[in-house]
Amino acid sequence: MVRAPIGFLYPTGFDRQILRAPVLSVFVGQSLRPLMSKEGNEDLVVLKELIEAGKVTPVIDRTYPLSEFPEAIRYLAEGHARGKAVVSV
Fold first, then answer.
1. Averaged pLDDT of the chain
2. What are the residue boundaries of the structural domains of the chain, listed by start?
3. This prediction's pTM
4. SS3 at position 35
């Protein structure tokens, strides 16, 4: 989630958070609104350059072999991941 300085929480991604945001707004002290972004070619070129320069590095929490793919999905669904789960092929 992204917290805006004016007191809104923006759940990101296409998951249950997007669907729950309007309902949760009733029960929490902040207004929850879905946030969707569009990435253009220029944005991806800049991101590529940052990655190649070593200024952006992914945070990998766990690595799973392909045979353990269902376990990787379960781990992510629990919501405790501190980074990305990588599935090796």
1. 77
2. 1-37, 39-89
3. 0.46
4. coil
